[in-house]
Amino acid sequence: MAESGSLPTGFSELEVLAVGTVLLVEALTGLCLNSLTILSFCKTPELRTPTHLLVLSLALADTGISLNALVAATSSLLRRWPYGSEGCQALGFQGFLTALGSICSSAAIAWGHYHHYCTRSQLAWNTAVSLVICVWLSSAFWAALPLLGWGHYDYEPLGTCCTLDYSRGDRNFTSFLLTMAFFNFFLPLFITLTSYRFMEQKLRKTGHLQVPALIAKTVPTINAINYALGREVVHRGIWQCLSPQRSELDRAQ
């Protein structure tokens, strides 16, 4: 760990500043886009549907990831970690919680799309609420395990952020990593691929193919653009939020 005011070992000042700048841009972009998604859901009645509740869960998770990146950007620009070991554990938990929440919410959205397009029935509120609760309870469970001794949070090589310590090769961390990866990466990936595969087969018959966004789990910005801001109904919701006078006129008409 770099001391106060010193550079992390093995990195030049330019490298640290470059990482901090990139993280800052990504964090601010993700926060802005996902905040618009959350705001439009809260302010626009048309968006308060079970399907959009899953999108809201994803936006909340990606907002958390962006906040995590903002802390990492600040530390990189300061060229030190100013929050101590307890802050490292807290940030590791928060980052892992929201990352798992984002992945599982993406899988839930994929299943919701499959349910809508392949069964031609609307997603029920109790089903959507149950999915969101399961996503966050599961994410909290797996994110808490390193704090309880199975797995471990530690500083990243740059020394300005904290995450799972992937450098450990002992039996404890290996067993945690493999088990966690199965339930939180491979299983959601299987659900996503299977759901979009069935959708593709169903929609091919009608001539309305939809390109599955399987890479949208990488960064919050892509998620916001793909799942929320790329939809016309969300565009209208954001426009109503940003133009209240126009919204009142639409309702009057």
TrEMBL record:
Residue ranges of the TM segments: 16-41, 53-78, 90-111, 123-145, 173-196
Subcellular location field: Membrane
GO cellular component, as recorded: membrane
A Pfam match: 7tm_1
Chief location: membrane
SUPFAM superfamilies assigned: Family A G protein-coupled receptor-like
Domain G-protein coupled receptors family 1 profile, residue spans: 33-253
Purpose: Receptor for all-trans- and 11-cis-retinal. Binds preferentially to the former and may catalyze the isomerization of the chromophore by a retinochrome-like mechanism.
Protein name, UniProt field: RPE-retinal G protein-coupled receptor
Upper taxonomic lineage: Eukaryota, Metazoa, Chordata, Craniata, Vertebrata
Encoding gene, per UniProt annotation: RGR
